[in-house]
């Protein structure tokens, strides 16, 4: 009878090992299968955001991109050129001050530092409130277009700035301003390549 218990225990361990091995192999295979399409989707979203925030260009900004470490994170710069001349730079920036944590936006600057346009890349703000930063939810972010941060205070009016906050979403508005300001300062300090 002791023999039967040992073989049962051994068979249970072997069965558990086999099930774990098969599940791990299947998960690894699925990861490899989906890795390419996920990367392609991210790249397409990034390229679409670049096209939205800078004037028309004929180069491949992703191939000329460069990074800058700022405030414990990384900003990515995408120089857009037409006929070899810089027409704008898209900056992928971030903030950790959103109501629901961090979010990422793409800010397009003209060569002189004027904001051309802004696109939201990732956010988890409150639906119906903070998510109004997205163009498909409201036109709130267009107030930044054509503004020169050198003389346009990137703060909400409640804090003495020039930005009208999203109604009932001051925290998200402040965070958005923080991300734009971070991109502008980095762009002026060395992102104008």
Protein model, in words:
There is one protein chain. The chain is an alpha+beta fold and 193 residues long. It has one domain. Helices cover 38% and strands 24% of the residues. It contains two helices and five strands. The protein has helices at 2-53, 170-190; strands spanning 66-70, 73-82, 85-98, 101-109, 115-122. The protein has a five-stranded antiparallel β-sheet with strand order 1-2-3-4-5. Strand 2 (73-82) and strand 3 (85-98) form a beta hairpin. The longest helix has 52 residues, at 2-53. The termini are far apart. The relative contact order is 0.12.
Characterize this entry briefly.
With 193 residues, this protein is of the alpha+beta class. It has helices at residues 2-53, 170-190; strands spanning 66-70, 73-82, 85-98, 101-109, 115-122.
Secondary structure layout:
Blueprint: H1 2-53, E1 66-70, E2 73-82, E3 85-98, E4 101-109, E5 115-122, H2 170-190
Query: Low-confidence runs (pLDDT<50, min 5 residues)?
Result: none
Number of domains: 1
The SS-based structural class is alpha+beta
Overall 3D form: elongated
Discrete helix count = 2
Radius of gyration: 24 Å
Main beta-sheet annotation: 5 strands, antiparallel
Round the mean pLDDT to the nearest integer and report it.
89
- Strand order, largest beta sheet: 1-2-3-4-5
Helix content: 25-40%
Strand content: 15-25%
Q: How many beta-strand runs?
A: 5
- Ends apart, CA distance between termini: 79 Å
Order of helices and strands: HEEEEEH
